[in-house]
Amino acid sequence: AMEVVPRLGQEYGDTTGRYYGLLDGYRLEDAQFVFVGLGSAMGTVRVAVDELRDQGYPAGMLRIRTFRPFPAAAVAQALKGKRVVAVLDRSLSFGAQGGPVFLEVCASLLTHGLDPRIVSYIYGLGGRDTIPAQFHGVFQEMLDIDKKGVAQPVIRYLGIRD
């Protein structure tokens, strides 16, 4: 499947003009702070990344398009050299330290010899909307993690009512 998905994405793109592969990186080239996730919320993240870039921040986004098989090597390559990574999950992995995407990204980075500061964000619980301002808050926390050198707590939540 790791070879078939990109080939079919290329064929689809040749027909429609929209190309899909295993990953979709956005403004990653010089990004130091990267949001990682999958699904429709990444469109909202893209808006936040553009707003952060307009303010002069080196933000980027990595959208994972295929969860199984997980493109571990491609994820590790895309995140190589990044300072802080915020992984966005729309669900919890009960009994685990983070959501399912977070766990896969952690395993990918560690098995490829990378060790960036990484934090898990659980969002959209109960169908709640997520807006760009919330991702601006995540980015401010990423800046704080970069200064402190540690992500504590490792799991954080967006949009939870007090």
Shape: globular
Q: List the total number of helices.
A: 5
Oligomer: single chain
Give the helix proportion (percent range): 25-40%
- Poorly predicted ranges: none
Alpha-beta classification: alpha/beta
Strand adjacency order, main sheet: 1-3-2-4-5-6
The main pleated sheet reads as:
6 strands, mixed
Quote the distance from N terminus to C terminus: 43 Å
What gyration radius follows from the Cα positions, in whole Å?
15 Å
Number of strands: 6
Order of helices and strands: HEEHEHEHEHE
Bin the strand percentage.
Answer: 15-25%
Rounded mean pLDDT is: 94
Structure description:
By secondary structure, the protein is α/β, with parallel strands linked by helices. Helix content is 40%, strand content 19%. The chain has five helices and six strands; from the N terminus they run αββαβαβαβαβ. It has helices at residues 4-16, 41-54, 72-79, 100-111, 132-148, and strands at residues 23-26, 33-37, 59-64, 84-89, 117-122, 155-157. The protein has a six-stranded mixed beta sheet with strand order 1-3-2-4-5-6, sandwiched between helices. Strand 4 (84-89), helix 4 (100-111) and strand 5 (117-122) form a beta-alpha-beta unit. The N and C termini lie far apart (43 Å). The mean pLDDT is 94.
Label this structure with key terms.
40% helix; alpha/beta; 5 helices; six-stranded mixed sheet; 162 residues; globular
Describe the structure in brief.
The chain is of the alpha/beta class and 162 residues long. Helix content is 40%, strand content 19%.
